[in-house]
Amino acid sequence: MIEPHPSRPLVAMIHAVPAATRIAGHAFAQEFPQATVWNVLDDRLLDDARAAGGLTDALRRRMLRLIAHVMEGGAQGLLLTCSSYGEVVDTARGLWDVPVLKSDEAMFETALAGPYRRIAVAASTPPAVPAAVAQLEALIPAARRDRPVDIVTALSEEAAVAADAEATARHLADALRTAGGADAEVVLLAQYSLTPAREALADLLGVPVLDGAGAAARELRDLLVLGQEQTAAAGTVAP
């Protein structure tokens, strides 16, 4: 078991694609440099979900075994970077008393807290679309009870094999326009692998584009560092 340093919380990240390791690592270096990051990669998770047409019980158990592995290793926080496996987080939260984040949950909460009435969700792999929309819709009753929100989705599998971030952005922009998302007020990237295209896509569309990696890093930082600091400060106050 890894013994985490008190000032450097051990944050595990479980990835389904190698690119997510680099992208999430960059986000944590920028937003949560205090964290000690532990990367776990199973690069068949997404392909197997695609082949099965979605998550199966066997795939859910496989992800839970990976989660158990990092929990037994001393993880103080966990981020699943693959949106297709977000539903497994609900099970994990009932099994372990450690912050466990879905890949895009913090991003969705940020978008719903904003002024946006029409939100677009963009993806480059089919399983990510229903998974992202399900997470977003599940948060609406608490976050936007009195404010309506309209969700439009766009899928561009060409974006997954584009040569660079600019080409990825062009494919996503085309898919959004085709899907009727040209008038969206904000675009949410449903996969970490699309994060490098965020700025180019924002320039093409002229609206904010949000990604999950940075939002997740800030959320875990607030939970694991700021929360501890506030608790410590409260403990020093004389009764």
TrEMBL record:
Q: What Gene3D superfamilies does the record point to?
A: 3.40.50.12500
Q: Which Pfam families would you find in this protein's record? A: Asp_Glu_race
Q: Which domain of life is it from?
A: Bacteria
Task: Write out the similarity annotation.
Answer: Belongs to the HyuE racemase family.
Q: What is this protein called?
A: Aspartate/glutamate racemase family protein
Q: Which organism is it from?
A: Streptomyces atroolivaceus
